[in-house]
Amino acid sequence: MTLMAKAMGVKVGNSLRKLVLLKLADNANDKGECWPSYQHIADQCECSKSAVRNHIDALEEMGLLERENRLGNNNGKGNTSNVYYLNLDQPPMPYGDTGVCHQMASPVLSDATPPMPPDGTRTSHSFEPVIEPETPNSTGGNFISPAARKHLGISVDGKIPFPPKFSPNDEHRQIANQRGADIDSELSSFRDHYMARGIYLLDWNAAFNVWLRNSRQTYSQKPKTRLTEILPATSDIPPGFRG
């Protein structure tokens, strides 16, 4: 069993303390040794250095790790990190005076990250981003369940069949007037064309706009001019030119 799996199964009584333990296990070698700095652990666990120190003290008191303090290279000064030896094979000792480790949680410092509920966050010991599941509210309030999509006849990509109550709007009528088209006749042809083919579209209003713009112009026929209206009366034609 790996150290990460062992650390995951240990009850330490505090969510942030558990996160610190997981971070140590993630950095440890096969012998259970690791030496991350307080600042590195704090950055990875998103908490303060003081909170990291307190939780490492608690883990040491519970017997889950041993700490070796290392002196700095400059006459005992410097930022040399401690060495931690993890001991996750034995059940943890009770922390404090409660006697029950899973019921004990140390006070949260003012500059520390408060414990999160089990369903409030997810912890990953890798550097890969955690992708949260999409919720109805995350789509801007336009979420439609799969059952509702099936009932309404909406496809996966949002396309819908020809609406039964589709009717021309003001824009359609304006285009029809500009083209000299009979909008009722065009609507009938438009409906029959798409319903006969079972076509699904995203925007039927826009589709009808295109249909109208592509329609042929129709002009009212002028009455035919009679020949008698052009030629003069027979009485006005000279005798030599009459038929």
Concise summary:
This protein is mostly helical.
The count of DSSP E runs of length 2 or more, i.e. the number of strands, is 3
Q: Percent range for helical residues?
A: 25-40%
Cα end-to-end separation: 122 Å
Order of helices and strands: HHEHHEEHHHHH
Give the amount of beta strand, in percent.
under 5%
Q: If you had to describe this structure to a student in words, what would you say it looks like?
A:
This protein has a three-stranded antiparallel sheet with strand order 1-3-2. It has helices at 3-8, 15-27, 38-45, 49-61, 146-152, 170-179, 183-197, 204-213, 227-230; strands at residues 33-34, 65-68, 83-86. Helix 3 (38-45) crosses helix 4 (49-61). The chain has 243 residues and is mainly alpha-helical. The N and C termini lie far apart (122 Å).
Give the helix/strand layout:
Elements: H1 3-8, H2 15-27, E1 33-34, H3 38-45, H4 49-61, E2 65-68, E3 83-86, H5 146-152, H6 170-179, H7 183-197, H8 204-213, H9 227-230
Antiparallel strand pairs: 1-3, 2-3
Helix pairs in contact: 2-3, 2-4, 3-4, 6-8
Features:
single chain, mainly alpha, three-stranded antiparallel β-sheet, 9 helices
